[in-house]
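In this section we walk through a basic example: taking a raw amino acid sequence and producing a predicted 3D structure, encoded as discrete structure tokens. The instruction is simple. Fold the sequence below.
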Amino acid sequence: MISIAAAEFGDKTQLALMMLAASLRRPGAIFSGMIAGYAIVAGLGVLLGQALLAVVPLSLLTLISGIVFVAIGLLMFKVDLDNEAATIRSRNPFQAASLMIVLTELGDKTQIVTVALAARFAEPVAVFVGAMLAFAVIDGLSIALAGVLGKRLPTDKIKKVSAVIFVVLGILTLLGVL
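The resulting token sequence is shown next.
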């Protein structure tokens, strides 16, 4: 759950959800749509992770997941969140939120982390539930605050803290393999 939360904190999707909630002012519908979208994306990630586990030895998957965590953390230092965040407008906030999640999260770092965790731990239900809890907490708070957090904290600092957490988690994973 911590890995997913760190990946999502300061992510373009989190910022887009905040903008969506601020513009449409229907937090309940946006939250429900967000959960539906994440259920699809996290479910696909868990299935892919389990498929990898069936083919690749756990020790190699753990090593790869550690490298992926470090790489994502390092890449987070280079991503310009302000240019990537976008607002999706729709008359139906549920559809807008769920569609935005599916489109922005497929192949995103949080889905890659979900795949890596599902492959590493061989506990698909636990990984799925943990991922969904992380999304609900991190993005749910973002929706509830709808921009207050973004106005008070510079996105550059949020991104840097998330990146450092990712690199540390990756290094700890690699140390566990060695």
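Looking at the output, two observations stand out. Residues 2-60+78-158 form one domain. The first helix runs from residue 2 to 8. In the next section we compare this with other chains.
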